[in-house]
């Protein structure tokens, strides 16, 4: 887990609170497609599946996780878009 104060500022923020699998990843993928290479995209969800789905998505799509933070039932990830 990353210290929240050290996380980068996101250019695009996705609030997937209350959405269930696969929708947080679907919303994340849409946001990353709209971002420019090098920008950071933040996704926050209450679905605990995000804790496994987000790293798997990053590996499959070859984007970089630059931070992760969880508090209670809210889980957030920050991704840097590495390519189009």
Description:
This protein has 84 residues and is an alpha+beta fold. It has a single domain (10-80), classed as 2-Layer Sandwich (Translation Initiation Factor IF3), CATH 3.30.110. The chain is built from two helices and four strands. Strands 1-2-4-3 form a four-stranded mixed β-sheet, with helices on one face. A hairpin with a 2-residue loop joins strand 3 (64-71) and strand 4 (74-80).
Strand content: 25-35%
The H-and-E topology, N to C, reads as EHEHEE
Q: Mind telling me the CATH class?
A: Alpha Beta
Radius of gyration over alpha carbons?
Answer: 11 Å
Question: How many domain modules?
Answer: 1
Distance between the termini: 27 Å
* CATH architecture call: 2-Layer Sandwich
Counted beta strands: 4
Shape designation: globular
Strand sequence of the main sheet, in spatial order? 1-2-4-3
- What's the rounded overall pLDDT mean? 95
